[in-house]
Amino acid sequence: MPLAALAADLHRAIGRGEIDVLFQPQVSLRDGAITGVEALARWRHPRLGGLGAATLLAAAERADLGVALSDHVQALALARAAAWPATLAHLRVALNVTAADIAREEFVPRFLARIAASGIAPARVTAEVTESGVIHDLGAAAATLEALRDAGVRVALDDFGTGYSNLAYLTRLPLDYLKIDRSLTLAITGDTRERVVVEGVLAIAAGLSLDTIVEGVEDASQRELLAARGATYYQGFLCAGPLDDAGLIALIEEGRA
Q1: What are the C-alpha distances in Å from 256 to residues 140, 241, 249, 251?
Q2: Which is nearest to 100 in space by CA: 73, 59, 71?
Q3: CA distance linking residue 251 with residue 245, whole number of Å
Q4: How far apart are CA 235 and CA 223, in angstroms?
Q5: How large is the C-alpha radius of gyration of the chain?
Q6: In whole angstroms, what is the distance from residue 141 CA to residue 153 CA?
Q7: In this predicted structure, what is the pLDDT of residue 54?
Q8: pLDDT at 242 over 60
């Protein structure tokens, strides 16, 4: 289906409840414990079936619904997480936040109000800022993210290694985590030149006292190499793909058995 048609459909999809959220575990490389999840949007299209985040975000941009979609997905993810059983109460919940989101004048109070309405403690929430989007005013963005951190929310720079990979983001934005894109994960088991790049990124993060979350880890050799080089957490099919609530609950509770 052409993107323009998808964009038209999206105007109705939010109201019809077609936008869903799945959760992908984030795992400690130190002890293998699942410590958090990233909330990932999915579109249950009535004719095309399940559509992933990339298609959904492209349609939202075409329809000028990016901000509305962000608000909806964030609220939905928080509401779902608030309903989890006590065995999942320790999990952090990472919500994707775009450059357009943080440029909004009222973003901080609205985001914090959304968290408060869910009943989840701000200390359990991570705002994942997509690195591939252009942040035009780093000073204003830094003030916005610092306000979130002052309220207890942690901040991650997402998808590092793609897009602009702007090192100024690392030095000027108040961050807690650096998320390393899956393209760099593949490089950890590549040739020497590729490994040097990954090791350099991990060294920069360590020098800035940032924890790292490595995306796209699919096999034990990647996990072991990343752990040996000081990465903190991983996310990927080695543990699990994106899960619905029942799947996530089963994974956590089986791991505790």
Answers
A1: 43, 19, 11, 9
A2: 71
A3: 10
A4: 10
A5: 18
A6: 15
A7: 81
A8: yes
Burial profile 102-133: b = 16 or more Cβ within 10 angstroms, e = fewer: bbeeebbeebbebbeebebebebbbbbbbbeb
Q: What is the per-residue pLDDT for 175?
A: 96
- Residue 225's φ and ψ, nearest 5 degrees, are -65, -40
Closest CA to 25 of 187, 254, 238: 238
- Average pLDDT of the segment spanning 130-140: 76
Give me 148's structure tokens.
């979130």
Identify the CA nearest to 3 among candidates 67, 64, 58, 69.
58
Cβ neighbours of 251 (radius 10 Å): 16
Instruction: Please determine, for residue 75, whether its predicted confidence score (pLDDT) is greater than 80.
Output: yes
